[in-house]
């Protein structure tokens, strides 16, 4: 009789480039695909935007599996991961339990316990590496330590061969039938109040949409990515991040597609960014304290000036700096923000306003559709200067010149801050410098229909420099 393998899907919501699935097929198992969303015991509960994406990604995966004759089994959301698996095992004749490894610290802890328990019950348990290009547990620098700087990491790994997955003939998968029935709606992933209209109009959450995006990007924009990647007013980047985070696209299939273009600008541009993602997972694995604490311990004691009013104004896109407000509103509406703008908004929060980077990271965690513990942590620690390859403390982004330099047409600010749409470009990124006549002509009353700046740029910059310089002295 053919034996059954439980395929526990997590951040790998795809059938291709999925090593755990390929192994099951190669070894002649019937596959029981399984997903478990647990609201109660995960340390890092998914934020609202991530749950929204997850709902549609699971719906898409369910449809793919159903078309092939199988059925996705959903675990009991009221149970812990361990208990939910046990419930499934009691109802089905399973021989092997398979999954692709995740590198979030709480996942590693849970996986280790589940693996030990299942093995002691006599199940065959196997885990694979499909969510990153290289196995972070085996990646070290020449002196045998984890990499803490990106460039040597990139130089070392970019040379190494990536084993590309052979395409899987999906019609060859033999499916096991689930005995338990649970509906996707039972997971309650969608919001109860409708704040998601902007996300619906911004995204198509399916693997085929991700593949189409990858195809169009490779054909039309990958080679010129370096010229446009910093321009939030243009579609210069791929917007593949949520598809990669949820594993609707595998990192190796994306890399393979990009490298098939055989172009040096692709390698030094977009491919390099894919290795930043890899670096984020590497840091998360080797420095599991870093999602909540400074990667370098000495930065842990930095005297932040926590202020709820500052934080709220920043979250709502009401700081009075147009590029920052545009970014925060783009995030709230679409669940995504351009990378350059992520750096600008982060710098204002952490430097000018001296708010803890963790508060920014938490807000991003809740509002990003691509919220990813490795990348988010790396991005925020970079801004705060407390992590690997961090920005030096004296780097304080100027939100006015950054806006002028990168939102060159002004289309980005005009789209997300329509109240400023009639200002001429000269004042679009600094309405507070516009003469009264210009403001009146554009219909703007500062402090009434667009905020006055939350802090003056010069004052905020100086405050940050003083605070960071003083801290550097005492922590040296
Ligand atoms: C404060 C801050 C927080 C961030 N939080 C997240 C997060 O939660 N999730 C997330 O996926 N990215 C995060 N990033 C990284 C980056 O902003 C996004 O990956 C990128 O904007 C996604 O857009 P894209 O797919 O168009 O990227 P592209 O420029 O098209 O790059 C292609 C892929 O490479 C990876 N990538 C690109 N830039 C980076 C980077 N700087 N760091 C890590 N990976 C990168 C992503 O997987 C991305 O999809 C953060 C950056 C900052 C500064």
Task: Report what the structure shows.
- There is one protein chain.
- With 476 residues, the protein is mainly alpha-helical.
- The protein has 3 domains: 4-131, Rossmann fold, CATH 3.40.50.620; 132-162 and 195-286, Serine Threonine Protein Phosphatase 5, Tetratricopeptide repeat (Alpha Horseshoe), CATH 1.25.40; 297-475, DNA Cyclobutane Dipyrimidine Photolyase, subunit A, domain 3.
- The protein contains 21 helices and 5 strands.
- The protein has helices at 19-26, 48-67, 81-91, 105-120, 150-158, 197-202, 207-220, 225-228, 241-245, 251-259, 264-286, 308-316, 322-334, 339-352, 357-367, 373-384, 399-406, 411-416, 425-428, 436-441, 457-475; strands at 4-9, 30-35, 73-74, 94-100, 124-128.
- The chain has a 5-stranded parallel sheet with strand order 3-2-1-4-5, sandwiched between helices.
- Strand 4 (94-100), helix 4 and strand 5 (124-128) form a beta-alpha-beta unit.
- Helix 11 (264-286) crosses helix 16 and helix 13 (322-334) crosses helix 14 (339-352).
- It is globular.
- Flavin-adenine dinucleotide binds at residues 229, 237-241, 244-245, 270, 273-274, 276-277, 280, 339, 342-343, 346, 364, 368, 370-372, 375-376, 379-380, 383.
- Residues 229, 237-241, 244-245, 270, 273-274, 276-277, 280, 339, 342-343, 346, 364, 368, 370-372, 375-376, 379-380, 383 line the site of flavin-adenine dinucleotide.
């Amino acid at each position: 009789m053919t034996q059954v393998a439980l395929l526990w899907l997590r951040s790998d919501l795809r059938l291709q480039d999925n090593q755990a699935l390929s192994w099951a097929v190669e070894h002649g198992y019937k596959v029981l695909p399984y997903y478990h969303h647990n609201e109660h015991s995960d340390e890092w509960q998914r934020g609202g935007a991530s749950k929204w994406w997850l709902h549609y990604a699971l719906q898409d995966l369910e449809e793919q599996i159903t078309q092939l004759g199988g059925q996705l089994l959903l675990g009991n959301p009221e149970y812990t991961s361990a208990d939910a698996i046990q419930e499934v095992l009691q109802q089905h004749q399973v021989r092997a339990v398979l999954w692709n490894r995740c590198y979030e610290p709480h996942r590693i802890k849970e996986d280790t316990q589940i693996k030990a328990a299942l093995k002691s019950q006599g199940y065959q348990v196997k885990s694979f590496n499909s969510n990153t290009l290289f196995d972070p547990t085996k990646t070290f620098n020449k002196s045998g330590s984890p990499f803490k700087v990106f460039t040597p990491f990139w130089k070392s790994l970019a040379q190494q061969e990536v084993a590309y997955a052979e395409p899987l003939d999906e019609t060859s998968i033999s499916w096991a039938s689930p005995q338990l029935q649970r509906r996707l709606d039972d997971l309650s992933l969608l919001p109860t109040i409708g704040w998601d209209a902007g996300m619906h109009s911004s995204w198509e959450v399916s693997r085929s949409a991700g593949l189409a995006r990858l195809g169009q990007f490779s054909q039309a924009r990958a080679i010129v990515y370096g010229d446009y990647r910093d321009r939030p007013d243009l579609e210069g980047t791929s917007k593949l991040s949520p598809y990669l985070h949820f594993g609707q696209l595998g990192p190796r299939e994306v890399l393979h597609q990009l490298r098939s273009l055989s172009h040096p600008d692709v390698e030094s541009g977009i491919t390099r960014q894919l290795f930043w993602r890899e670096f984020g997972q590497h840091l998360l694995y080797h420095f599991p304290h870093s999602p909540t604490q400074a990667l370098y311990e000495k930065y842990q004691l930095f005297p932040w000036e926590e202020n709820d009013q500052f934080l709220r104004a920043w979250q709502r896109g009401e700081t009075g700096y147009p590029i920052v407000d545009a970014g925060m509103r783009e995030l709230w509406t679409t669940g995504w923000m351009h990378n350059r703008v992520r750096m600008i908004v982060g710098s204002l929060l952490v430097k000018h306003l001296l708010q803890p980077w963790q508060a920014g990271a938490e807000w991003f965690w809740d509002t990003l559709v691509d919220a990813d513990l490795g990348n988010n942590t790396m991005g925020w620690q970079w801004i705060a200067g407390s992590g690997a390859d961090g920005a030096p403390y004296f780097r304080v982004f100027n939100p006015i010149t950054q806006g002028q330099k990168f939102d060159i047409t002004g289309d980005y600010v005009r789209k997300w801050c329509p109240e400023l749409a009639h200002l001429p470009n000269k004042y679009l990124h600094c309405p507070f410098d516009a003469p009264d006549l210009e403001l009146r002509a554009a219909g703007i009353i500062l402090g009434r229909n667009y905020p006055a700046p939350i802090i003056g740029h010069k004052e905020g910059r100086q405050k940050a420099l003083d605070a960071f310089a003083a801290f550097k002295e005492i922590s040296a």
